[in-house]
Amino acid sequence: QVLVGAARGPAPCTSAAPARCVAMAKCRLVTPASDPGALKIRVAAKAAGVDLTVENSGKVQVPELHVGDRVVKYTNAILRCIGRIYDGGDIYGSSFVESAQVDMWLDWTDMELDCAAEPPQLEEAIERLEKHFEARTFLVGQRYTLADVSLSCSIHRLQQAGVLKGLPTAAQRWMGTCAAQEAFRSAASAG
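Above: the chain's sequence. Below: its structure in token form.
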């Protein structure tokens, strides 16, 4: 049986093949030293209760998640893999539609905020987020998902780089909620 540390995290593995869950729970991330996606992956793994070791390497061009003898490359594919590791987990949404919405926000974050060191449409993107968060606590549904992980890490990166000076009220409230998550706090402080 695999138990995870997050209070709202996935339930213990109770599927017909618990060995699959144990094998999937131990993962190794190999990432370029300065890859901005590494923080997203570390936060997601912590939030999902996945045992992740991280290895910085100059030999890889993109992040690679090693799960046994299999490899998943690229940040969003790795986030999706982490979101699906445990049956019953809700970090990837609690329904098919919510999972699709998480995917939408992962893609949106890539296109709007991770496209350049200084995203050309940053002001418009932040305005859209402000409208979205006026009536919501999280991006998708009523809980912290991979969408929140990805977007909050991108905003954190832009703030740390001095590209994004501040956020409007509702977006700032959401960012504070994300930054208060144990997974975000521990991963962001680790590096």
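The radius of gyration is 16 Å.
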